[in-house]
Structures are given as structure tokens and as C-alpha cells.
Specification:
It is an enzyme of class 5 (isomerase). By secondary structure, this protein is an alpha/beta fold. The protein contains 26 helices and 37 strands. The chain folds into six domains: 104 residues, PriA, 3(prime) DNA-binding domain (GIY-YIG endonuclease, 3-Layer(aba) Sandwich), CATH 3.40.1440.60; 68 residues; 64 residues, no CATH class; 185 residues, 3-Layer(aba) Sandwich (Rossmann fold); 182 residues, P-loop containing nucleotide triphosphate hydrolases (Rossmann fold, 3-Layer(aba) Sandwich), CATH 3.40.50; 93 residues, Ribosomal protein S10 (Alpha-Beta Plaits, 2-Layer Sandwich). The structure holds adenosine-5'-diphosphate and zinc ion (ZN).
Length: 817
């Protein structure tokens, strides 16, 4: 008897055993996909991870449905890495598998397929079976896999659908995503009927009397002769021939040209790569050498370089070294929106060796990059991506860069696996004996701590490139300004003067307002004080329905005070203000000026983010108001003033990392100012100009911030000294949830012998009709993480076996951010 061990793309911790024939047993290799039946009628794409002859004891092994691959498409290192993620982040291996694979590689019988509306479909390239499906999709908008089985009257259809996805004829329904629409560029080509020589003569006679059109066609031929078959965009054609797109349209209507769309960041690079142009400065060269020598002893190094010090150029030189040895390089970014800028920077240097991968790409593209990486193709020797690029089938990985390593977006929040891409990257690198470079102007406390204890190397760039000066920081005391009536709305006189001056000089301005979290705070309008929890060192949040302030970590609570504890003022508020309000006030203050806004609302739509960035770069916008997105590594050359509208709502965010994050965000936003010759200026409005964190930002004192925060982390039991696991429980029934969470808390508390906090209600205690409770576990350095997690898992299993708690949803967030 022969068996294969299979991971299913479901939230199941176990693998499943299926039976196979002897021939199949010898054919299947670890890392190949097999379609397998599951439950009554489901078929899933599973992953073979082992072959053996041990009959399962608890159930009768079913036969597999079919083998889907001829060669493994997942490597053994990947499987090892996924198993590590499942165990460290306490989730199901099936969750990791499902999260890691492009969904086109995970067809199941419920999958909906629809026609691909983008790109050109060449019907003559379709097989008969493919054509039948294609036709069916002209009649109805989507088909289930079951329907396809009906249409073709056969069972074995996954490979056919797969082919059609590869050909770009169909897409999977679930990937119709609105959040990311890549920029499409329109290209033009000659209709196939004119491709031959006779066709050409015919064409010229058709156009005899249409001079403008003829001119364009001739330009088209010229371009294609010099371009070596590179696609010709409508824009290029009209630019070169000096004509309008209306003429092009006329030619399309006449069926002389055809147009088609290609996503901009996927057009392959065609210029020459210019290896020798980049010359490192002395400081950069020194950093480069230091990183290399630190890699002789350490696996991981941190490049701590101030904003605009030229970290990217150091990365480029390092990448170059790994490429010459034939190794693959992975470049992780915190934000998809940053890829476009970086891709063009890297392509200018490495030409066609750069591939982009992220979860918002459609399936075809993701599968394409997946395969290129699997085949160790030159085209994907450098992969740039957000955190999911970590799951690609590398075989020869030599180097990983984690840029802006402090960014919290590297931690996945939902769904499982809730992994931290930086930490998971370090584990992945170890499997390949590859090196990891973390880079940031404001490193996370955890990473800096690791350099301090000698685990990671540390390399610094202390000055900006080309000796551009760090921006000058001006503090504005809001208390004083309100008292002396020097405020117009949320703008102090100092800020208004600063903006006026910058605009007068033709420079641009960025205004930053922190996105207010979902936790409302009680803030004194007179002195800016926000009440804190004495035990947890976080701000208390306001719970409206109970009219009280609570610590959402430990549950400490007080009645809502009527007077400020600090200044006895009576003017207390729970309302913050957002970017929209600032934009409105600006329109009143500077009616002649163009004002842009960059936040979640304005960047959601089609190309939202890029459009706004582009128009700001092109100086069509004078003042840009925005949230955190502004802080992320963008490079603008004409911004001389950055204003931070209110530093306090960052400082008092109810989160144990609030001061660290405030330092990072303010320093990063400030870093957008004065990136060319002229020294930039930053105006910070705050009620607390003497707050240590504000002073540290002003003095560019990272070490001061680090030391102070590290001490607090020790006292209040937080990372890097303690590891935190947050457990969330959810259920529709308030009482059942309450009972269940108290039960779980008590059992954890009695069995673990380490700090367990809660069960606590978040300020928003109900989402989509479900109530929420949270429990926080703090694991000290001296406890074994592995055995603590084992105990927790055991307790969760018994929780699950209590009948009345079974319906309560439990999620775990290890190293909760
Ligand atoms: P960081 O990532 O450290 O904030 P960047 O890598 O964006 O800094 O560099 C800041 C600016 O300086 C960029 O405009 C970059 O093109 C320029 N720059 C940095 N190093 C060099 C170099 N060696 N040669 C030319 N320009 C450089
Ligand atoms: Zn507390």
C-alpha cells in the first residue's frame, strides 16, 4: 500500500493521508500538487509533502483525484519555512499554504472563473476545449468548476483551467480586487491582415488620401524598425509623429491598428543598464565595506542611516555583488505603493533582472513570477515585493534586504498566518545560509537591541548624501498659542507664516496628521494631558456606553473625570481632527493654492496613490495633507517645509509602542523636508514641547529614545524583554463570550505562571455583530517559548472541547504589534 501526505489549503493543523497507486507513488515528488477529495463533495488542490507506506489509523485513506504537476513547484526549503511559520505563529500549516500560494495554483471545485477583460485574447490560440469554455463565458459572467466539468463532460479539468489562466483568457473571480489597480498603458500594433507584403501595399493604397493617418503609419514602421519589436505605446506614437490620439483612433476604427493594454510596471525594461554611473560617496563606501565585513561573522546586519543618507545606493552595490555570484536577491518593502519608485531605480541599474511580486498583482503575473523564481530565471534574479514575496520558491537565495524594517506593515494582522515578514525573512535566510540587511533611519527597538547584544551587526550613515543638512526643527507650544489666541482653526501663526513663506518661494509643503486609531482618548483641551494606566504605561481609552476610561490591556478603569488630572481644566474632549478638516481649513487660509490630500479615502480608487504622488512631484499640488503614508520613504525634491499638526495624538496612542512610533513617524515625516541643497524646516505643533520624545526628535537623538524606551519596556514587561501573545475571542452572544473568556483567562493564568492580562474589551467592543475580548500573555526571556506555546495550545484544545465554548472564535497573534 502506498500513501502520500498532503497539506490542504484549509485552517487545519494536520496533514492528511491519501492512497496512491504504485506508479503514482514513484511519480509523485514532494512539492508537487495533487487534487484530492475532501468531505462529501469537495475537491481541493493539496500539496504533497511526504510519501510513505504507513496506513492511517484513524480514518480510511481516500484515493487522490489526480496529480497536477510534472515537477515540484514548491521547494523543500519552502515547506520547512512554512512549517516554522505555522509553529512559531501558532497557526495551521494549511493557513500558511493557502496564504503563500497564488490562488490560481489552488483551484478547487467552488472556485469561480470569469473572462479576463484586460489584454488581448487571441482566439486562434485556444484549443477546442478551451474555446468551449471561452464561449460559455460570453454567455454568462462566471462559471464554477462544476459547470466546466458539465460543459466538457469530463472530470479532469484543473489543468485546462490552469492553461487558460496562463494564457490570460480567464481569471479567478476572487481576485477582482478594487484596492489595487495597476496603471495600464495603451499600446498599438498593426492589424494582422496587413502583416504580409501584399497587405502592406493594400494598406498604402487605402491610406492614399489620408495624409495624417499615413504619416502615423509610417512613423509606426520607423519605430518598430529601430525598436526591435519592443511594444509601441500610443503616447510614443503620437509624440514622435506629432499627431493626436484622435488620428490613432481613426486608424483603430478602420482596423488598420489594434490597441491593447499592458500594466506599466510590467513592461520590460529596454534601456541599457548603466552599471558604472553609480559612484558611492566616501561615507557610503565605508558603510558598504563595513556591511561586508560584518557579514563575515554575522548573518544579519542593520544599516542605520539617517533619512536621505543614500541607503538605497548602498543596497544596489551589495545586490550587484550577489548577482555576480549568481545568487537570487529578495528586496522587501513595507508598502506596495513604494514599488513603482524603486522598480525604476533598480531597473535603471540592473535592467531586466528585476521582478515585482505582491499580493495585489493578479494571478497570471503572480504565477509568472512564481515560475521564474522556481526556475531560477535571470528575469527574477532580483525580486522586489511586499511581505508575501517571502513565500516564493527560491532555490538559490543569497541576500535579503528588509528596507524600512521598523514599519509595522511587515506584520500581517489578518488573516492567519500573522507573521512578521522581517523575522520570517531572517529564518528563511538561515535555510539558505543567506545574509540579511535591515535598513532604517529609525530602527525598531527590537532590531537595535539585537545589535546591542551582538546578535546583529550595526553599520551607520550619519549624514545625508551630498552634505545636505538635516532639517531644522521648530516646536510650537499649542497651550501657549491657544491661550494667546494665536490659532486659526488648527493652525498656529508660526505654521501659517512658514507655509506662506515656502509657497512664496515656489516651494512645496507637507502637512502631517496622524490617523486617529479606533480608540478614542480623553484629552484636555487646555494642557493636552491624556490619562494613563499606571500598570501598563499606555493611555486609557474612553468607553462611551459605560462613560469610563479603561486600559485595554489590563482592564483597569476609572469613571470619566470631569476635570483634567493635570491642570484641573474642565475643557475635556474625545474628538480628534482628521486630514479632511485640515484640508478644509487650508482652503480658507490659502484659497489660491492647490491642496492635495493623501489618506486612506483619497488613495483607495484607481491608481489613487500614484496619481497623487505624481501630481505632487510634478508640482501641480502646493500643499499636501496626509497621514502615515507620507512618512514612507518617498523622495520629493521641492519640499522645504513639513508641518506636524498635532504630535500629541501620536504620543498618546493607547499602545505600548506609542513613543517609539511617534519618534519614528515624526523623524520619517521630517525627513521629507529639504532633500536637495536647501536646508528644510519642520514645524511641530504640540501641547508638550518638553516631552522627552519630542526633544529626541528635535535633537535627532535616536540613542536617547532607544535607551529611555528600553528601560520602560523592561519595567512594564514588553518586547524585547518579553514576548507578547494576544488572544482574541469573538462571539455574537455577549454572555457566552464573557463566560468563555473568563474560563480561558483563569486556566491560562493558573497554568502558565507568567503575566496574563485580561480578559479585556477593546474600545470598539463589537465588530459586525460580534463581541470581542482580548487576553494578553507576556513571556519573559527566561521562559522557554516552545514549551509555553505548547501549554497554551493544550489549554486552547481543552477550551475547544467544552461544548458551550466551541462556537467562540479564537485567534492568536504571536509577537503582536
Ligand atoms: P535614503 O533611502 O537613505 O533616505 P536615498 O537612497 O533615497 O536615501 O538617497 C537620497 C537621495 O540622494 C536620492 O535622491 C539619491 O538619488 C541621492 N543619492 C544618494 N546616493 C547617491 C550616489 N552615490 N550618487 C548619486 N546620488 C545619490
Ligand atoms: Zn493597564
Amino acid at each position: 500500500m502506498y500513501f502520500v501526505e498532503v497539506i490542504l489549503p484549509l485552517a487545519l493543523a494536520k496533514t492528511f493521508t491519501y492512497s496512491v497507486s504504485e506508479a503514482e507513488y514513484h511519480y509523485i515528488q514532494k512539492g508537487m500538487r495533487v487534487a484530492v477529495p475532501f468531505g462529501k463533495s469537495k475537491i481541493y488542490t493539496g500539496l504533497a509533502i511526504d510519501l510513505h507506506q504507513n496506513k492511517p489509523t484513524l480514518y480510511e485513506a481516500k484515493e487522490i483525484h489526480q496529480i497536477l504537476d510534472e515537477k515540484p513547484i514548491v521547494t523543500e526549503n519552502q515547506i520547512k519555512h512554512w512549517q516554522w511559520i505555522a509553529s512559531y505563529y501558532m497557526c495551521a500549516i494549511g493557513d500558511v499554504y493557502r496564504g503563500a500560494m497564488p490562488s490560481a495554483l489552488l483551484l478547487e471545485n467552488e472556485t469561480l472563473i470569469t473572462k479576463n477583460t484586460v489584454g488581448f485574447i487571441d482566439e486562434s490560440q485556444l484549443t477546442d476545449e478551451e474555446f468551449l469554455i471561452y464561449q460559455a463565458l460570453q454567455q454568462q459572467s462566471s462559471l464554477k468548476v462544476q459547470d466546466v466539468i458539465g460543459i466538457l463532460n469530463k472530470k479532469n479539468i484543473f489543468p485546462i483551467i490552469q492553461k487558460m489562466i496562463d494564457k490570460g483568457v480567464v481569471v479567478l473571480h476572487d481576485e477582482i480586487q478594487e484596492s489595487y489597480k495597476p496603471k495600464m498603458v495603451r499600446y498599438i500594433r498593426l492589424h494582422s491582415k496587413y502583416e504580409s507584403n501584399e497587405g502592406l501595399n493594400e494598406l498604402l493604397s487605402v491610406l492614399k488620401n489620408a495624409n495624417k493617418q499615413k504619416e502615423i503609419v509610417l512613423t509606426y514602421f520607423q519605430l518598430s524598425a529601430t525598436n526591435h519589436k519592443k511594444p509601441i505605446s500610443v503616447k510614443e506614437l503620437t509624440d514622435v509623429s506629432n499627431s493626436s490620439s484622435a488620428v490613432v483612433k481613426a486608424l483603430i476604427d478602420k482596423e488598420i491598428f489594434e490597441d491593447y493594454l499592458i500594466q506599466e510596471d510590467r513592461v520590460s525594461f529596454t534601456g541599457d543598464s548603466n552599471d558604472n554611473l553609480l559612484q558611492l560617496s566616501e561615507a557610503q563606501q565605508k558603510a558598504f565595506d563595513e556591511i561586508k565585513s560584518s557579514f563575515l561573522e554575522k548573518e544579519v546586519s542593520l544599516l542605520h542611516g539617517v533619512t536621505s543618507s543614500g541607503k538605497t545606493e548602498v543596497y544596489i552595490k551589495l545586490i550587484e555583488e550577489y548577482l555576480t555570484t549568481g545568487k537570487q536577491v529578495l528586496y522587501l518593502l513595507p508598502e506596495i505603493a513604494l514599488t513603482t519608485q524603486l522598480v525604476s531605480r533598480l531597473q535603471a541599474y540592473f535592467g531586466n533582472k528585476v521582478a515585482v511580486f505582491h499580493s495585489k498583482y493578479n494571478n497570471n503575473e503572480r504565477v509568472e513570477v512564481w515560475n521564474q523564481v522556481l526556475q531560477n530565471s535571470e528575469k527574477a534574479q532580483i525580486v522586489i515585493g511586499a511581505r508575501s514575496a517571502l513565500f516564493l520558491p527560491f532555490s538559490n537565495l543569497g541576500f535579503i534586504i528588509v528596507d524600512e524594517e521598523h514599519e509595522q506593515t511587515f506584520k500581517q494582522v489578518d488573516p492567519a498566518p500573522r507573521y512578521h515578514a522581517r523575522d520570517a525573512a531572517i529564518v528563511l535566510a538561515a535555510f539558505f545560509k543567506a545574509k540579511v540587511l535591515l535598513g532604517s533611519a529609525t530602527p525598531s527597538l527590537e532590531s537595535y537591541y539585537n545589535t546591542a547584544i551582538g546578535k546583529y551587526g550595526l553599520v551607520e550613515l550619519k549624514n545625508r548624501y551630498a552634505n545636505v543638512r538635516m532639517p531644522e526643527i521648530v516646536l510650537v507650544d499649542l497651550k501657549d498659542k491657544y491661550f494667546r489666541k494665536r490659532m486659526t482653526g488648527h493652525f498656529s501663526d508660526v505654521l501659517i507664516d512658514g507655509i506662506t513663506e515656502a509657497l512664496f518661494l515656489g516651494e512645496q509643503v507637507i502637512l502631517f496628521q496622524n490617523r486617529r486609531g479606533y480608540s478614542p482618548l480623553l484629552e484636555c483641551m487646555t494642557c493636552g494631558h491624556v490619562p494613563q494606566c499606571q500598570q501598563c504605561d499606555v493611555s486609557l481609552t474612553y468607553h462611551k456606553h459605560r462613560n469610563e476610561l479603561r486600559c485595554h490591556y489590563c482592564g483597569y478603569s476609572i469613571a470619566k473625570p470631569t476635570r483634567c488630572h493635570s491642570c484641573s481644566g474642565i475643557d475635556l474632549t474625545t474628538k480628534g481632527f482628521g486630514t479632511e478638516q485640515i484640508q478644509q481649513e487650508l482652503i480658507q487660509l490659502f484659497p489660491e493654492r492647490k491642496i492635495g490630500r493623501m489618506d486612506q479615502d483619497t488613495t483607495r480608487g484607481k491608481f489613487g496613490f500614484e496619481k497623487i504622488i505624481d501630481s505632487f512631484k510634478n508640482r501641480e499640488i502646493d500643499i499636501m495633507v496626509g497621514t502615515q503614508m507620507l512618512a514612507k520613504g518617498l523622495d520629493f525634491d521641492n519640499v522645504s517645509l513639513v508641518g506636524i499638526m498635532n504630535a500629541d495624538n501620536m504620543l498618546y496612542h493607547p499602545d505600548f509602542r506609542a513613543f517609539e512610533r511617534s519618534y519614528q513617524t515624526m523623524t520619517q515625516v521630517a525627513g521629507r523636508a529639504g532633500r536637495s541643497e536647501k536646508q528644510g524646516k519642520v514645524i511641530i505643533q504640540t501641547y508638550n514641547p518638553n516631552h522627552n520624545t519630542i526633544q529626541q526628535v528635535t535633537n535627532n537623538d535616536y540613542i536617547g529614545m532607544y535607551k529611555e524606551q528600553l528601560y520602560d519596556r523592561l519595567i512594564y514587561k514588553y518586547p524585547p524583554y518579553f514576548r507578547i501573545i494576544k488572544i482574541s475571542l469573538k462571539h455574537r452572544d455577549f454572555n457566552k463570550l464573557k463566560e468563555g473568556s473568563i474560563w480561558l483567562y483563569q486556566v491560562l493564568f493558573q497554568n502558565l505562571g507568567i503575566p496574563v492580562l485580561g480578559p479585556e474589551e477593546p474600545a470598539i467592543n463589537r465588530i459586525r455583530n460580534e463581541y470581542i475580548r482580548t487576553i494578553m500573555i507576556k513571556i519573559p526571556q527566561e521562559s522557554s517559548i516552545v514549551s509555553t506555546k505548547k501549554t497554551i495550545q493544550k489549554i486552547l484544545n481543552s477550551f475547544d472541547s467544552v461544548a458551550q465554548f466551541r462556537a467562540i472564535k479564537v485567534t492568536l497573534n504571536v509577537d503582536f504589534y
